[in-house]
Specification:
Structural class: mainly alpha
CATH topology of the largest domain: Glutathione S-transferase Yfyf (Class Pi), Chain A, domain 2
Helix content: 55-70%
Order of helices and strands: EHEHEEHHHHHH
Family: Belongs to the GST superfamily. Sigma family.
Keywords: Transferase
Strand order of the largest sheet: 1-2
EC number: 2.5.1.18
GO biological process, one term: glutathione metabolic process
Protein name: glutathione transferase
Length: 205
């Protein structure tokens, strides 16, 4: 797995590999290494997962591939679509927070952060709280799916970008988050993984 020294879009994949007890090389590259290698790739995007001589790009496509291997997908076309819908919402949530976080310091960044805190967080967290309440403690279809793993990853990444705990007003999400952190494989990975940098913007600028 090739990605930066950051949770970000690489961490859902790392968590799924940890859950599946799949051994892999966690290759974390610098911005200089990335600049040198990206022009020669099929798609100039990370993360990139190489499996038995074949290469996969796009984080959510890689997650769906692993979900099928680990039985973290749906049991029907309808269930698959419900999972995909939730994953797309989680990815939108992450992207909206990242659109503030990766701005340079200044007035515009602070204004966007205020909007994220006052509008974006309740928009997504309130709906996700209802989903957990209606799905037997999981996000969708009443069982553990890759949507839950992505939720764990992105909630922690969003908390990192905002430098605050974000689940205090959403008890069902908080309980679900804690339960996911104790899953086999994931618990040990969370204890030993490298920390995020103090400011992830330095990885790209």
């Amino acid at each position: 797995l090739t990605y930066f020294n950051l949770t970000g879009l690489g961490e859902p994949i790392r968590l799924m590999l940890a859950y599946g007890n799949i051994k892999y090389e966690d290759y974390r590259i610098s911005k200089e290494e990335w600049a040198a290698m990206k022009a020669g790739l099929e798609w100039p995007h990370l993360p990139m997962l190489e499996i038995e001589g074949k290469t996969l790009f796009q984080s959510m496509a890689i997650c769906r591939y692993l979900a099928r291997q680990l039985n973290l997908n749906g049991r029907s076309n309808w269930a698959e679509t419900q999972i995909d819908m939730t994953v797309d919402a989680l990815n939108d949530f992450r992207a909206k927070v990242a659109s503030y976080y990766y701005l340079p310091d200044g007035e515009e960044r602070e204004k966007k952060k205020a909007v994220v805190l006052s509008e974006v967080l309740p928009l997504y967290l309130d709906r996700l709280e209802k989903q957990v309440a209606n799905n037997k403690g999981y996000l969708v279809v009443g069982k553990l799916t890759y949507a839950d793993i992505i939720f764990l990853s992105f909630i922690e990444y969003i908390s990192y970008m905002l430098d605050k705990a974000i689940l205090e007003k959403h008890p069902k999400l908080k309980e679900h988050h804690q339960r996911l952190k104790s899953l086999p494989g994931i618990e040990s990975w969370l204890k030993t993984r490298p920390p995020n940098p103090d400011d992830a913007r330095t990885l790209f600028s």
